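Re: How this chain folds, sequence and tokenised backbone to follow
How to read it: Take the token row as a discrete description of the fold.
Start of record: The labelled sequence and token lines come straight after this line.
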Amino acid sequence: MEISLILMREIAQLFLLLLMGYVLVKLKLLRPEDSRSLSVIMVYAITPCVIINAFQVEYTPDVLNGLIFAFALAFAAHILFLLLTRLLGKLLRLDAVERVNIIYTNAGILVIPLVQALLGAEYVLYSCAFIVVQQILIWTHCRSMLCGTHGTDWRKLFLNANIIAIIIGCALFLLRIPLPGIITDTLETASSIFGPLGMLLAGMVIADTPLKQLFATPRHYVAISLRLLVYPLLCLLLLRLSGVSGLLPDGRNIAMTVFLACTAPACATVTSLAQLYDRDAARSSALYVLTTLLSIFTMPLMIGIFDTLI
């Protein structure tokens, strides 16, 4: 329960930052389209810094085993999401936009600052395992669903800034190469603004959306319920029944970092891809905004249940 209360406090702080972005646009000090410039900074500068910085930890067998464990949990979670969406997609007649918003979470912008606050900076590395798996799937499976093709542009995948950062971070970690102090300090400074900048961006997006129309569309709540409640609870059930969190001395905390990513709202990158491929970006944006707002209540609830059962 204590962890849940800490999480609620941290999410409340992030929500106030979201509110700042909303107010700045409503006061016409910023325009909603200004968020695109900030998004470029987030994707191509801040996020790679966060990823590389996360891998700047001392190489030990325990850390390596924990990272492998986190990757295994991340793969299992995504396989579960893909299978469930394939099954429920037919039953509930979910379209491509709804499916990808249910599968992919805002694991970077929201989860990394929360993991830092709840467990410490050393656990961000394990959050990156989830992000690695998700980034690969976003630029393969998610992209294919939104653009209606079945091929994968491997060149674009490996030239993606986040994938490059992952490769660099992994190489530095496995080869045990520490970066110079001035570079590490720069990466840490950039990482510290990751969460605040992401929530300011979310607030700017919300400001351009009619809230009455946003909350009054019943169909939205099907995807929202699956993303914020059903999928996290099924992940929790599997964690409880399998008992995998007991496989490592620090397995519970590592499992919590992955589970936290599973409880996060819809992924902002999905909306950007929906805009790129002209696949109902307005509805994708609505799902992103609603899940972000409602996650303020659902994420502490899910972590409270995790804290009780695991």
